[in-house]
Give the backbone structure.
Amino acid sequence: MATDAELAYFVALRFVHFFAGIMWIGLLYFFNFVQVPLVKELDAPVKQALLPKLGRRALFWFRWSALVTVLVGWLYFFSRWILDGYPNPATMDWWYYSILAGGLLGTFMLLNVWGVIWRYQKKIIAGMEGALAGKPAPQEMAVWGKRALIASRFNTVMSVPLLFFMAAASHLALF
């Protein structure tokens, strides 16, 4: 049985994990369902003026909320594993398997955020800022944008099973 201090610790971890996760997935959905379609409707001067400022700010919160969500999620998982006496896979309950599935999806999505999406988006932002200063836009910008978009769309699709497994751990104890 957990002590009051342990319970407070787990409540704090869960709060931070949920808050950061809502911010991360909310921004992911904003990018894919709002910003990408809107950008297609904007003319070049408006895009060049708006997107570097919006992108830099939104991507800051996007990537850091992703990192906090995953790190705190794994801290929660391993803290509970320790508190439960290091159960082995044969004795783990549904909670562990469900959270592991969601955690692995989230970790892969985090790698996509930092390794693909942010890597290309910062180049695009720099290219747009350069264009605002009168420099020619890099020819590779369209390729960078396509790669970032594919990774972002992949994360959007993967967010559905991620959210299912995270919610199922507490709300759908099948086994």
